[in-house]
Structures are given as structure tokens and as C-alpha cells.
Write a structure and sequence with these properties.
The complex is a heterodimer. By secondary structure, chain A is an alpha/beta fold. Helices cover 39% and strands 17% of the residues of chain A. Chain A has 13 helices and 17 strands. In chain A, α6 links the parallel β7 and β8. In chain A, α2 crosses α9, α3 packs parallel to α4 and α10 runs parallel beside α13. The longest helix of chain A has 21 residues. Chain A starts with 15 loop residues before the first strand and ends with a helix. A 3-stranded antiparallel beta sheet of chain B has the order 1-2-3, covered by helices on one side. Helices cover 49% and strands 18% of the residues of chain B. In chain B, α2 crosses α3 and α4 packs antiparallel against α6. By secondary structure, chain B is of the alpha+beta class. In chain B, a hairpin with a 4-residue loop joins β1 and β2. Classes of the chains: A alpha/beta, B alpha+beta. Chains A and B meet through α11 and α13 of A and α1 of B. Bound molecules: pyridoxal-5'-phosphate. Chain A: Its cofactor is pyridoxal 5'-phosphate. Chain A: It catalyses: (sulfur carrier)-H + L-cysteine = (sulfur carrier)-SH + L-alanine.
Chain lengths: 407, 152
């Protein structure tokens, strides 16, 4: 058992759903917010609100300082070589589209190849697919090994001299696997391609070092790391950022505007056109401070234990298929499964009536569903504030739902 | 767990339709419409042969949850053999029912087993599952009527 009860920090965990205590097991979709984040955001609007990078007055300077301090925090979290390599977007989706609209537009031409994994979330797939259509490039997929891990042999075949971009997720939002990013970076760089990493499912669960990974671009969302919705991060290697033309223009991103021409601001302001989500970024800062105080050692110990409990419970229940690796050693805190002869939606509605909130559907990964020959799965995903009782309630409710539909 | 509420949604009639759907399969020379529920990947394909402003044949295929399969099965029972105008009225009435509004006793009676789907109104996240097949049928009736009108 944990000595500190982190649940106290998350007010929503005290609410009830359908007259049952809330059992929140949809952390892969979005994580709940600690009081520290809620307070930081309320405090900003109550006491610190001003626009950033514009005013000469004290309040504006303080808001700018708080906003920029979060850039330092994120740079530290990801071990970026320079703070200017980090900028703020709306979400992972926005960050990835940003790379497509700048790097992709500038460097992909007809006949080139873009390589993704079959497990990609639509956010790291549809933008590349549409770019490939626009440019006359080819979108190629890296498949899976039988146990659901990325097939590195296949990656070696798919990444060729024609490859310009390799875009993969660090951790799958369905299979629970973590991909060998360093190896993929070596394969991509050997062919002079860049590696774009979708970190949406990684940053809340493991320490990330973009330099050690040798990722060229790295994206994540604040709302999956205990922060607010509406804020995303994009990291890019400075040497690459220097080559890019902004995709959005307007306020904040300029240094001088003349009648016919504009001189752009330095990086990173160059890539942050318009008023950013200042309060959201401050909320992200509070979330990262909170997460680092808990520490990844604690996060991983708790999440491993709960994932093992989930996997054990599910694999021992007859008529359940778990997708992805069956062993906890290869498994992140996301477990997708199906109940034989019962559709995922029906399972999820049954669980919801017991206050157990899980996701059912294609999880924004329809190509993966096709690859697995399923139309939908149920997904339970834990965070460090979940406990054994949550997993127990889930397994008990699942058993009764199963029995209901089997009878 | 509230098994009672689960039973209210998944009434025996619904479970029976889902387990052994009526008019499941394909009819030759039919017009077809396939609709997807993008949030869950459910897919329903409805087929109709319309002649003389009447549904002569109806069938469906597809995959999805209990609610979507049962609702499709019930829909085929409710619409089979009906004149287009009656079928369109029944589809409109079903839509009223599923969003929680009441129907007259006669209207409800005409909807047959579909009346039990009224409880879906209490499960807002599942309304789309129940309406998918009916939307497909509605599109077919509009198309069929046009085609029919032209050939006459
Ligand atoms: C692997 C992965 N990539 C991308 C996303 C998209 O994140 P967002 O919706 O915050 O842009 C998600 C989450 O939904 C995800 O799980």
C-alpha cells in the first residue's frame, strides 16, 4: 500500500456516478486534475491575469514570467537542450498538425515516403495521410509482432532511402506497449529522415529524455498529464526549427511589420502566433510540479501494481480477450479487451451503471482495429491515484455484466 | 451494481432481437445505405426494394452493440411491407420516442417492439446506437421515393 493517499489531492474522486462511488479508469482519455492545478488556474484569473509578451506594466510582466517559467519546466522535464526548443500549442493533435504543416509541407515531395505504425492514434495518422495525398507521397505502415509489440524487423524494411518522416507513438493508447524510440530514431536518421514522436500516452507515466531518445519532434497534451485541456506541447530540435517557415501568422510572432514584408520574432515566439492559453500553460506548470513531487518512481510502482492486478483479473476471467502483451513486464497502464459475444458498448454501459468509467470503441485507432480484426474494444487505464479497490470494483462489475449478458 | 437499470435497458425483447435478428442478410437488387457510428465503429447496412411507393423487401447487415443490432432488427419488422409515407411517419415517431417525448397510444402500438427502446432515452450516450438503422432506412426511403417517382 502507498503511504501517501494521493486520492485526497483529486476532488473529483469524491463524486458519485449512478449512485456509486466514481471509479475512474479512463486515464488514457484524460487524467483528473489535482487541487493544485485547479488552484493555480483560479489564482491566475483571480490575481494575476494579463496578456503575455505585450504590456510594460507589472501584472503583464508577472504573467509573462509565469508563462515563460513553464517553458523552462517543460524543457527540464523533457531534457531539451535549450528552452527555445519547447513551444505551446492547443494539444497533441495541434502539435502534430503543426509539424505536418511546416516540416511536412516544406520537405515532403512526390515519391517520398512517410512511415507510421499501425497502432497510431488518428492524430498521428490522418494528418500524415492527408499530407501524403496532397504531395503524392506514400504512407507506409509498420506492423506488429504477434504479441502486439511493434515489429522492428518490419520497421527496418519500411524505412528506406525514400523515407522523409517516421512518425510513431511512444506508448500505445490501446495495446499498452512502449515503442523502441531510440532504435527507430537510428533507423530514421540512417536514411536522413526525421523522427516525430507522439508522447500523448507517455509523459504522465515515464521519464522522457528527448535527447537520449534522439527524437526530432516530440508532442504531448497537458490534459493527459494532470493539467488542463486546451494546452499542448511541441518540442523540436533547434537546428530543424531554424529551417521552418511559420504556418500561422499574427501577433506575438513578429519583430517588425512593414507594409509589404514582416520580420519574424525569434524562436520560440515565431511559432506562437496570437495570445496563447496563458492560464492553461500555468495550469500545466502546476501539474508538472505536482507530478514531479509525486515522482516517477512512485507513479510507476503504483501503476505497475494496478496494471498487474488488471491483467491478472482479466486473463483469469473466462471469455475475455486481452489485446497486446499479456504480461505486465511489457505493459503500460492501458489494457484493452473484449468480452466474448458482448459488444464493448454494452460492457461499458453496464460498468457505468456501477460507477466504473471506461472507454469503449475504436479509441481513435481504426486502422489498428482493422489490423486486430475487431470493430471495437473496451479499455481500462489506470493512473497513480487509482487503487486496488478501484480495480477490484471494475473486475466485480465486469463479472456481473458478463453474467447478465450470458444468462 | 444496479442490475435493475441494466435490465431496464436490456429488456428481454431487445436481447432476443440482438441474438437472433429478423431480416438479417441481403436482398438482391435492393438499394442500400451503409451508415457508421464514428464514435464506436458500429456499421449498419440497410437494404430495401421499393415498388409502387411500398417497401416490398427489407433487410440489414452489419456489426455493432446489442442496442444497434436489436434496433435494426425491430426497425425491419416495423417497416416491412409498409407504404413509404407510413414508414416515414413511423421513423419520425421512433425519433420522438427515443429522445424522451411521448407518443399517442396508436403511434406507440404501430411501433411494435420498438416501444421498449424508449428506455434508451435515459442513456443519452446510447441514443445514436438505437437510431443508426432508422437513419439509414430514412435515407433509403427518400432515395427510393425519388427513383420510384422518376420511373413512373
Ligand atoms: C496516442 C495518442 N495520440 C494522440 C492523442 C490526441 O491527444 P489530443 O486529443 O489531446 O490532441 C491521444 C489522445 O487522445 C493519444 O492517446
Amino acid at each position: 500500500m502507498t503511504t501517501i493517499d494521493y486520492r485526497q489531492d483529486f476532488p473529483i474522486l469524491k463524486t458519485r456516478v449512478n449512485d456509486e462511488p466514481l471509479t475512474y479508469l479512463d486515464n488514457a482519455a484524460t487524467s483528473q486534475k489535482p487541487q493544485a492545478v485547479i488552484d493555480a488556474m483560479a489564482d491566475f484569473y483571480a490575481n494575476g491575469n494579463a496578456n503575455v509578451h505585450r504590456g510594460v506594466y507589472t501584472l503583464a510582466a508577472q504573467a509573462t514570467d509565469r508563462y515563460e517559467a513553464v517553458r523552462d519546466q517543460v524543457a527540464q522535464l523533457l531534457n531539451a537542450a535549450r528552452r527555445e526548443e519547447v513551444f505551446f500549442t492547443r494539444s497533441t493533435t495541434d502539435s502534430l498538425n503543426w509539424v505536418v504543416q511546416t516540416y511536412g509541407e516544406q520537405f515532403v515531395s512526390a515519391g517520398d515516403e512517410i512511415v507510421v505504425a499501425v497502432m497510431e492514434h488518428h492524430s498521428n495518422l490522418v494528418p500524415w495521410q492527408q499530407l501524403a495525398i496532397r504531395k503524392g507521397a506514400t504512407l507506409k505502415y509498420v506492423g506488429l509482432q504477434p504479441d502486439g509489440q511493434l515489429d522492428l524487423e518490419d520497421a527496418r524494411k519500411q524505412i528506406t532511402a525514400k523515407t522523409k518522416i517516421v512518425a510513431v507513438t511512444q506508448a500505445s493508447n490501446v495495446l499498452g506497449v512502449t515503442n523502441p524510440i531510440k532504435t527507430l530514431a537510428r533507423l530514421a536518421h540512417a536514411q536522413h529522415a526525421v523522427l516525430v514522436v507522439d508522447g500523448a500516452q507517455a509523459v504522465a507515466h515515464m521519464p522522457v529524455d528527448v535527447q537520449a531518445l534522439d527524437a526530432d519532434f516530440y508532442a504531448f497534451s497537458a490534459h493527459k498529464v494532470y493539467g488542463p485541456t486546451g494546452v499542448g506541447v511541441l518540442y523540436g530540435k533547434y537546428a530543424l526549427l531554424e529551417q521552418l517557415t511559420p504556418a500561422q501568422f499574427g501577433g506575438e510572432m513578429i519583430s517588425d511589420v512593414d507594409w509589404q514584408t514582416t520580420e519574424f520574432a525569434a524562436i520560440p515566439e515565431r511559432f506562437e502566433a496570437g495570445t496563447p492559453n496563458v492560464c492553461g500553460v500555468i495550469g500545466l506548470g502546476a501539474a508538472l510540479t505536482y507530478l514531479q513531487r509525486v515522482g516517477f518512481a512512485t507513479v510507476q510502482t503504483i501503476e505497475k501494481r494496478l496494471t498487474a492486478q488488471l491483467l491478472d483479473g482479466l486473463t483469469q476471467m473466462p471469455g475475455i480477450t486481452v489485446y497486446g502483451p499479456q504480461t505486465v513486464a511489457d505493459h503500460g497502464p492501458v489494457v484493452a479487451f473484449n468480452v466474448e459475444n458482448v459488444h464493448g458498448h454494452d460492457v461499458a454501459t453496464g460498468l457505468d451503471l456501477a460507477g466504473v468509467e471506461v472507454r469503449a470503441g475504436h479509441h481513435c485507432a481504426q486502422p489498428l482495429m482493422r489490423y486486430l480484426h475487431v470493430s471495437a474494444t473496451v479499455r481500462a487505464s489506470v493512473g497513480f491515484y487509482n487503487n486496488e479497490a478501484d480495480v477490484e470494483r471494475f473486475l466485480t462489475a465486469l463479472k456481473s455484466v458478463k453474467e447478465f449478458f450470458e444468462s | 451494481m444496479s442490475l435493475l437499470r441494466l435490465k431496464a435497458l436490456y429488456q428481454t425483447v431487445i436481447l432476443e432481437h440482438a441474438q437472433a435478428p429478423h431480416h438479417f442478410g441481403t436482398v438482391p437488387d435492393a438499394q442500400t445505405v451503409t451508415l457508421h457510428n464514428p464514435t464506436c465503429g458500429d456499421e449498419i447496412n440497410v437494404q430495401m426494394v421499393i415498388q409502387d411507393h411500398q417497401i416490398k423487401q427489407i433487410a440489414f447487415t452489419g456489426s455493432g452493440c446489442t442496442i444497434s443490432q436489436a434496433s435494426a432488427s425491430i426497425m425491419t419488422d416495423v417497416l416491412a411491407g409498409q407504404p413509404v409515407a407510413v414508414a416515414q411517419q413511423r421513423i419520425a415517431n421512433f425519433s420522438t420516442l427515443i429522445t424522451g417525448d411521448t407518443l399517442t397510444a396508436d403511434e406507440q402500438h404501430a411501433l411494435g417492439d420498438a416501444a421498449v427502446l424508449a428506455t434508451v432515452a435515459e442513456f443519452p450516450t446510447r441514443i445514436k446506437c438505437a437510431t443508426l438503422a432508422w437513419h439509414a432506412a430514412d435515407q433509403l426511403l427518400t432515395m427510393g421515393d425519388d427513383a420510384d417517382g422518376r420511373t413512373k
